[in-house]
Give the backbone structure.
Amino acid sequence: MSDCIFCKIVKGEVPSAKVYEDEHSFAFLDIMPAVKGHTLVIPKTHYEAFLDIPKLKLQALISAVQKVTKAVVKSTGSAGYKIEMFNGEIAGQGVFHAHFHIIPRDKNDSIEFRADKNWWVQKKDLYKEGEKEEYAEKIKKRLEAV
């Protein structure tokens, strides 16, 4: 889709802090993260929601989610993690290109929950100057070891 922000990111038309890419999947740091290291994994092909993704493409995507999650957890030193996917506007989906959120969690992390469509308070200015790129590089290095 020509107006999809995630499709534009995959094509390189919109910059992102990319951490992973393979034939079917693309992963990058969320621009409105819940915490540092919050990463999105998307299929390179545009599918609006989970049920739209063909089985073989979904298997490849889930494999990428698992691989990226391992790297995010190790690079952030988090005690745990959440993997979330919102499907449909009523469920909180804001970008209508299927995507998984990988959110590292720690006991005293800064996630503030709320009972609306996003479930967490997004933080536009969470990273200091250059810090987002540092997180992306840490995750990439861990991916090389996975």
Summary: Residues 5-145 form a domain with the HIT family, subunit A fold (CATH 3.30.428.10).
